[in-house]
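SAMPLE LOG
Freezer: B-3
Tube label: C17
Construct: single chain, 260 aa
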Amino acid sequence: MLKVQNKPLPWRIETLLVILFLLLCHFPSAANAANIATTSDITSSSPAAAASDTDTAAEVSAENSSTAHTEKAIKAAVTLKAVEQYDPAIAISNTNILVHNTATDAEVSGTLDTNGQITLSQLPAGTYNIKLMDSYGDYVLAKTSFTITTGDDSTILVQAAISQLTINYHNLSEKISAAPSITIAANTSKVFSLTQLPAGAAVTTPAGFIANGASCGVFAASRSGLPQQEFLTVPFKSSEFRIQINDADHYLRIFAAPTI
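STRUCTURE (predicted):
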């Protein structure tokens, strides 16, 4: 019978195996330690970076707030004088005006006086467009705009394409006319009641202002009671527009007359 005997390994081999085992146990620990150190570095640096970002954001916010506060703080009084675009010698009087801030859409309105002027106080800094309402309800964008950058008061000449409107009524009959009534209608309408006129007499009546390019209906009745109407258009390049009404015994004529 054969016997198998387990002979012990030589001591040198045993020593090598022990060293190899120790090395295998050591390397994973070192790698884990390196990973832990890296994570620690990232964690420790994050608060500083976050603090830096917060400081930068705070500086930008403070700068924007300061600029906005400065712009809001600037206010000025502005006197507007409205004149007709094609004849600045004619003031646009007793009409509504609308001032519009192009940045905020805020609007301020008022009424021009007999000299075509209005003073608007405490207007904030910004750029403004201007609209005028004619006597018949149509808004006209003025040629002029303005910008406020300082608190200094100023006077601005406003030009708008609006015409001065007049009615010239002529009694061509051989008799005294009845008191005529004339209606002018555009976006809204106005009625003008005249007095009796002797035969052959004429009278001119101011009828406010009307936008250039606007169309209007003119309605009147002859001395005999026959109604008459006509639709007229104001020229685009005009400063005055006159409606002529000739009332004779057998006809009533309405037309746009040349201005003098």
